[in-house]
Design a protein that fits this description.
Chorismate lyase, alpha+beta, Tscrpt_reg_HTH_GntR (chains A, B), six-stranded antiparallel beta sheet, DNA-binding, 2 domains, globular, about 30% strand, 8 helices, Arc Repressor Mutant, subunit A, homodimer
DNA sequence: AAGTGGTCTAGACCACTTC
DNA sequence: AAGTGGTCTAGACCACTTG
């Protein structure tokens, strides 16, 4: 790292956030892209003109996502295999991002919109009364012209009070719609993963080969304060490589 | 929390680790098992006689695993839905634990042990030379009398130098064997998840119903310093509920 | 205004690795 | 002995929520 390395500017954001973003950038493509270790915490602190605490907070963020490993007496070691991973199922929540990352353009078609009334399972998962109104949106997602996901979203009708739900463009990612129309940001997601052969309708829509099985993600999305706001069933073909980092802490 | 609450003892372990273990215990079954929030950081620090930093470190660990959420101006909110989850695929690496958690006794049978020579894929994944000797161990794992996993482990023969590998009891979890015979502790694991119908042999061993699909975890286990030491292919029936917490940070 | 968690500083000591 | 990351202290100020 050059002696004169400095933080670009202080645009109101947290220093530790800036530092971790900077370090990640340099890890992936920049001055540390060929390194085995990062400079010491004390050195980084001096170079960037912040306290060691700021550096440590930044490194903790990066470590939590698995990109570095900190070893006492040795230093901050870069985990190349992990930095180079794409499509981390444990980090990304949104499939359009995955499609773009894979070099394709995401499309949505076969949209089916309807009202249902919450059964016991959905009522409990979404924390609404049994029998209350739900908006159900089914759709097919394609990467370029390759069908890769069939998704069924369940949302409480009450979230969209004051908006005519049929006016909404449901081809957009559900996370974006919840944000735009309800001011709700999904930050956490409990996903149950199973393997399935699905029914004929879905297999046909996804053009699944006879012997091929599908991944089913049964997800509940939560906003801040553990508030469940959506459930979605997503059937994935083998188009994606779902990778997951599991760590003992 | 009672006024006289104190840390049980200081057995040489880190204070923040003790504090987080204590808090997790109280969250699950203890005095916070019915609470919506934890006491404030300052209060916890005073009650437990440590600095706020120690408390914050402990809370960070618990937050990273999704069990609490910290909200400025409000406090430390408990995520009940997450505390109550079992079988978190993103936290547990070892299936015997999952089986025990589900209330069954794990058994292993149909063990097949052999030597193979590394193909290109395994050579790259395990960071060994192509053609080098690998120990391959296939086995079936049961929960009680229910077959639920078929696993194929690949390990470099060189790891077991000085030990006759045929003398080892391969029914034990591979993590335990690596620890006991090689002094290697697997701390990280990159897992690729796919759905499969598997071949007839495996389907028969797992007594899979005709329409049922299987989850295949293709894992590479790493020790400290990004050292790959094992690859394993694990076929799971739907015996397990694989749950995963995904978080935006 | 009071209380909460979030960030940052400055400094200390410890455990571990390397030379 | 020197350098690394790990932990802990004490104190400060900030941003946000609640009464």
């Amino acid at each position: 790292m050059p002696d004169n390395y400095e933080l670009p500017h202080f645009g109101g954001k947290l220093m530790s956030t800036q530092v971790s973003a900077l370090l990640m950038k340099e890890l992936k493509n920049g001055i540390f892209s060929k390194s085995e270790k990062l400079p010491s915490e004390v050195e980084l602190a001096e170079r960037l003109g912040v306290s060691r605490t700021v550096i440590r907070d930044a490194l903790s963020d990066i470590e939590r996502e698995g990109f570095i490993e900190r070893v006492r007496g040795i230093g901050t070691v870069i985990c190349r295999d992990i930095v180079n991973l794409t499509n981390r199922l444990d980090l990304k929540l949104e499939y359009n991002e995955l499609i773009v990352n894979s070099g394709y353009t995401p499309y949505t078609d076969n949209i089916k919109l309807r009202i249902e009334y919450a059964d016991e399972e959905n009522a409990e998962l979404l924390n609404v009364d049994e029998g209350s109104k739900l908006i159900v949106c089914e759709k097919r997602v394609l990467a370029g012209n390759i069908p890769c996901i069939y998704s069924i979203d369940y949302l409480s009708y009450d979230l969209f009070s004051g908006i005519e739900y049929t006016d909404i463009d449901w081809s957009k990612p559900i996370f974006d719609l919840l944000d735009k129309y309800c001011g709700l940001i999904v930050v956490t997601d409990i996903a149950k993963i199973t393997a399935t052969n699905a029914d004929e309708f879905i297999r046909e829509k996804l053009q699944v080969q006879p012997k091929q099985a599908l991944i089913l993600l049964d997800e509940v999305g939560y906003c801040k304060l553990s508030r469940p706001v959506m459930r979605s069933l997503e059937f994935y073909t083998d188009f994606f490589d779902f990778t997951m980092l599991r760590k003992k802490f």
